Amino acid sequence: MPPHAVVDPEKTEGIRFPCPVCGARIKAAKSKAGQAIDCPRCGERLRVPDSSADEQSPKIDRRTEKKPRRPPRLQREQEAQPTPTAPATVFDRLAEHREIAPDPPPRWTFLSGVFDVVLQPTAVSRWLLLSLGFALTGLVATIVLAMSGAIGFGAGGPPVAVVVAFFVLPLFWLGFYTFSYAAALGMTILEATAAGLHGVSEWPEPNWKEWAGRLLPLVFLFAFAAVPGWGLAETLRATHPEWYWPAIGVVAAVLFPFLLLGSMESGSLFAPVSGVVVGSLLPLWWAWLAYYLLAGGLLTFGGACIWVGWVPLKSPYLTAIVTAPVLAYVTLVEARLLGRLAWRIGERGVVADEDD
């Protein structure tokens, strides 16, 4: 190039733009802006833009452009799998256990594997531990009642303070731990049985906070179930005062299983009436009747054991020791019975879905 030559900027710079068909980078003089030219690679007829495409958008160097890295193989497989949706009800959640460890259905819903549930290898030690808790609670309660009756509990004085300090407070905590453990065992058996499992593989951990979390909802539901019984007892107070507490207990015992299953199905403690449970009353009337008959028989058996030790034998201390295993047995078998009823309700829902 001559030293004094004039450089035409249109020839050195020009307009750069890509071919929309083959992607070739085309360079045209600025004087060609708005005119039609042929792509040197594919021959497509193109119109030269007014300005360079590099000026309209940031320049991208194809050689140094960073491509997005592919996620690891495990992440790709997880993203490819459909996201599981949360089951709507507790019966749907419990049904998931059947895919993990399916068990054949029992031959007799309320008889097969029900009354010998405490004899399963993993349940014997827990039944004995619960029996020990009931026995200690009963013994301490008997001591408190005996001492309070001998010294006139509530009359004041140092003996009353001794009873409160050394017996009442330990009785409260001992009873709280025992009944919390009973609630944890019972709910574990109920949930496993409702899932269609014959045995229990995952028992509650030795954590009293977890046990208390199982007990408090049950206390709330039982108190809620006792409200209609209290209303009935108030109407009978004038004519039959001796029926006051039995009326509350019977009504609460009848409504409690219904409310417990309803709250489990709805997933809310404050919604104990469930359409699924209500809808099972007529189609599964025989299951509800069988449950109440067997559960009532168990409660009567436990009450009879307490009465025999308290009245004919007149030995409250012996009663507390002997009836403790019976009360623990009744608690766990009651949970098994209610679990079988929940299993029947869940099976009915599965059949209804398949029919639809």
Short description:
With 356 residues, this protein is mostly helical. Helices cover 60% and strands 4% of the residues.
Q: How is this structure best described in words?
A:
60% of the residues lie in helices and 4% in strands. It is mainly α. The protein has two domains: 16-51, no CATH class; 90-355, no CATH class. The strands form two sheets. The chain has a two-stranded antiparallel sheet. Strands 3-4 form a two-stranded antiparallel sheet. A hairpin with a 6-residue loop joins strand 3 and strand 4. Helix 5 (124-151) packs antiparallel against helix 6, helix 6 (158-194) runs parallel beside helix 11 (316-355) and helix 7 crosses helix 8 (244-266). The longest helix is centred in the C-terminal third of the chain and has 40 residues, at 316-355. The chain is elongated. Residues 1-12, 54-62, 64-68, 73-78, 80-89, 95-100, 150-157 and 350-356 have low confidence and may be disordered.
Q: Largest sheet, if any?
A: 2 strands, antiparallel
Distance between the termini: 88 Å
What do the pLDDT scores average to?
Answer: 78
What is the element string, with H for helices and E for strands?
A: HEEEEHHHHHHHHHH
Radius of gyration, taken over Cα atoms and rounded to an integer in Å: 38 Å
- Strands, total number: 4
Percent in helix: 55-70%
What count of structural domains?
A: 2
Q: How many helical elements? A: 11
Share of β-strand residues = under 5%
What strand line-up does the widest sheet have?
1-2
Question: What low-confidence regions span 5 or more consecutive residues with pLDDT below 50?
Answer: 1-12, 54-62, 64-68, 73-78, 80-89, 95-100, 150-157, 350-356
General form: elongated
Structural class: mainly alpha
